[in-house]
Amino acid sequence: MRGVVDVGLTIPTFLVLIIVAISIHSAMTIPQMALVIAALAWLWPTRTIRAQVLSMRDVHMWHVARLSGSSGLKIIFTELMPNLLPYLAASLVGAVAAAVLASLGLEALGLGANDAPTIA
User: Fold this and answer.
1) Nearest CA among 47, 77, 48 for reference residue 65
2) pTM of this structure
3) Which of 43, 53, 45, 37 is nearest to 89 (CA)?
4) Which of 86, 87, 99, 83 is nearest to 42 (CA)?
């Protein structure tokens, strides 16, 4: 999985969005545009969260929880997730901001969704 993320990060995301938008522009709807953006937006948060989990792995509370007989799932939900929630929230905010900017970029190029509501 790490290799897929590394390869995906080398591909310019906005260029892929432009190519996909050009190829299906005549029938692109808002859910399709959101799906394409979401398919490319998970790469950076995945790498960030993985790095944070790997850095948390060496904390002694994990070893204490394992020695006290806690199962793997219990350690994940009682030790890992509470410490990871701020990073998940920050990644979510960053991903939403990037998705909005990508959508606006496609709209500015005239490649946005055809069924988008307008003010006029």
Assistant:
1) 77
2) 0.73
3) 45
4) 99
